[in-house]
Design goal:
It is a single chain. The chain has 174 residues and is mostly helical. The protein is 75% helix and 0% strand. The chain is built from ten helices and no strands. α4 runs antiparallel to α7 and α7 runs parallel beside α10. The mean pLDDT is 91.
């Protein structure tokens, strides 16, 4: 039975990949459902997901950047998405944000999300994504300018740890 399920997931992923990459299907928050397959039990499906994101990124570098905030919110609302699953998603997705401009504006969006969300899981996920960004001088300045948006959230130990990681990363690259 597991082989059948694996074949169904693999075939479904291949069809969805074809439809999205050929502009026959518009992708929105569902990108998170596809990204969860980074942790699929079948290595072939994991590799197909990596190939899908690579091709999607090659097609248009803005697609993943534009869909990321919605995907974070969607995954934060799903009870079956553990912290570890989310972190795997974030680590795999954030690597596609190569341009400093994307990282800089994402800082603003994620800080705003920290302020406006009433969901602790969303706060933690947003802070983790911030900790995965590469920071240049402008990005650090934006993080500092947005301090009032996330100041209250620093009382949460997980969020505080993410910001410490940012500071450590910035200190090492300076």
């Amino acid at each position: 039975m597991q082989d059948e399920n694996t074949n169904v997931r693999k075939t479904t992923l291949m069809v969805i990949t074809h439809l999205i990459l050929n502009d026959m299907l518009k992708l929105k928050g569902e990108i998170s459902d596809i990204a969860l397959l980074f942790e699929d039990e079948d290595i072939k499906i994991q590799n197909l997901v990596k190939l899908f994101f690579h091709e999607l990124h090659k097609k248009d570098m803005k697609i993943i950047y534009n869909l990321l905030p919605e995907a974070i919110g969607r995954l934060s609302r799903l009870p079956n998405v553990s912290e570890e699953k989310f972190q795997t998603f974030a680590k795999n997705i954030m690597q596609y944000l190569e341009k400093d401009k994307f990282s800089e504006t994402l800082v603003d969006k994620l800080c705003t999300r920290l302020k406006n969300s009433d969901n602790q899981k969303d706060w933690r996920n947003s802070a983790f994504c911030l900790s995965q960004l590469s920071f240049n001088e402008k990005g650090i300045r934006r993080l500092m300018d947005n301090f009032e948006l996330y100041r209250e959230r620093l009382n949460d130990p997980a969020i505080n740890e993410c910001f410490k990681n940012i500071l450590t990363k910035v200190k090492v690259t300076s």
